[in-house]
Amino acid sequence: MPVHSLNRVDALVTNSDWDDIRAALSGDEEAYGRLVKRYEPNIAAQVWRLCRDKATCEELVQEVFVEAYFNLSGYRGEAPFLQWLRRIATRVGSRFCRKAAREPRHVPIEEWDQAGQQPETLDPARAAAMLHALLARLAPDDRLLLTMIYFEGCSTREVVDRTGWNEGAVKMRASRARDKLRKIMEAENFTEV
Amino acid sequence: MDALDAVEKLAGLARREPPPATDVGGRVLAGVRDRQEQSLAPLWVFAGSTSVTAAAVALVAVRAWVSLSSWFCGMYWSGQLDAIIPSFRMVMP
To answer: What is the rounded end-to-end Cα distance, in angstroms, of chain A?
Structure first.
């Protein structure tokens, strides 16, 4: 792999990251392994919100880091390495959502009424499972967007950075996606909780 | 409560859920090697098909040359060329 484009040392990128990136570009697999180990929990947390299945989550994390490896020479250090990885994870997540939409599964929300009584007492894992099931009913892009907003608490700016969509498009799409979500909930009598 | 308010509440709780621990370091490196090998596969296919085509063309050329040369030599030794060449000389100035 060519070792070009790594002349810029930016304060946004830690020295240990730079050293490992340079070494990985020179073919040092151990160095890339260190990068994987350092950022794997963050990427796993991101893709977990989309799939909620450990085996699928591991596959997606693997896909993110393999794709990152082959694009490493294009990393300019203009943003922290994790931010760059998150963009790749968003692309991988988007592909996952499209694939999942082609193989539709009905994900029941059995416990909605129960949750509606006292949502604050709900177990976080159950709440996450319910929210995931709800968002899985949306179209792929809407699902991806609302997963970032609701599950990860991403701001519009962060969504723009991860997806490459412009700010106006993100706001409009988020508004429409919320409307669709509301309609789905109304159609299934989830309005009164 | 509005449906989206309920979703906001649910999201607040859902964010507290810890993701599962994963360990994909070894699989990532294996995946990288696999993909490197896959990216070389088309080169092997191209090299293989090119060399087969080249060998076939060479074989046809050699066979054509062998058959034509024997025909040519046959014509020469049977004296037919001696008859043909003067007729060309008559046509050409």
So the answer is: 56
CA distance A60 to A50: 10
- Interface contact B15-A153, CB threshold 8 A: yes
- The model's pLDDT over B4-16, given as tens digits with 9 standing for 90+, comes to 888 898 899 999 9
Nearest to A57 among B7, B11, B20 (CB): B20
How far is Cα A114 from Cα A33, in angstroms, rounded to an integer?
Answer: 44
Indicate whether this complex's ipTM tops 0.85: no
Q: How far is CA A7 from the centre of its chain?
A: 30
Spatial distance between the Cα atoms of A192 and A19, rounded to a whole number of angstroms: 55
For the full predicted model, state whether its pTM sits above 0.80: no
Q: Which residues of A touch B21 (CB under 8 A)?
A: 41, 44
pLDDT in tens, A145-154: 999 999 999 9
